[in-house]
Design brief:
Helix content: 25-40%
Radius of gyration: 17 Å
Structural class: alpha+beta
Shape: globular
Distance between the termini: 48 Å
Strand order of the largest sheet: 2-1-6-5-4-3
Oligomer: single chain
Largest sheet: 6 strands, mixed
């Protein structure tokens, strides 16, 4: 595995995927999003996603539009410096439907800017350091080679930051204040 550095990953030059392959598309997506925070490469990442793309992670689902206008800009806004991504594996498997399934495993490190709060809460996360944030994902690419679906499972960042209880309490309190049960 290559040593971590800005924008560097575990694939190294000897394992750079062929341009235009499903593995290349997924690798470019990972590098362009998780490896370039706080400034994801939106145009390149958006071009890799089909218009009907949906990403699900645990209980949340996001459309391509939400990823490009809310999720990645929101995440990028809390990153201090530049994120680091280490890609451990990206493997493609053709399926009978004309689609291609690509499985990927990577880690992301980043530091949190001063004055940042956790999404949808008032929990201060200033100065937190996220290290080895593990992600496993299944990408489905359409016949045109665009990513149509991402099913992602990852570490719980709130657990790794040690803010799980504070986030739960904040969301409950804010929900009650808004008049929601």
């Amino acid at each position: 595995m290559a040593s971590p550095s800005r924008g560097c990953d575990g694939l190294g030059d000897e394992a750079t995927p062929a341009v235009g392959s499903p593995v290349a598309a997924v690798t470019a997506y990972i590098r362009g999003t998780h490896g370039n925070l706080p400034s994801p490469i939106f145009d390149s990442a958006a071009a890799l996603l089909s218009d009907d793309c949906v990403m699900t992670n645990e209980s949340e689902s996001h459309t391509k539009h939400e990823l490009m206008t809310q999720v990645f800009p929101g995440w990028g806004s809390i990153v201090d410096g530049v994120s680091v991504v280490r890609i451990h594996a990206v493997v493609a498997a053709p399926v009978d439907t004309g689609s291609t399934v690509v499985l990927a495993h990577w880690e992301t490190d980043y530091d949190v800017k001063a004055g940042s709060v956790w999404y949808g809460t008032d929990v201060d996360i200033s100065g937190k350091k996220v290290r080895g944030f593990l992600v496993f994902a299944c990408f489905t690419l359409n016949a045109d080679g665009q990513i149509r679906r991402i099913v992602q499972r990852s570490d719980t960042v709130v657990k790794s930051m040690g803010i799980e209880d504070a986030v739960r309490e904040s969301r409950q309190r804010l929900s009650l204040e808004a008049g929601q049960p």
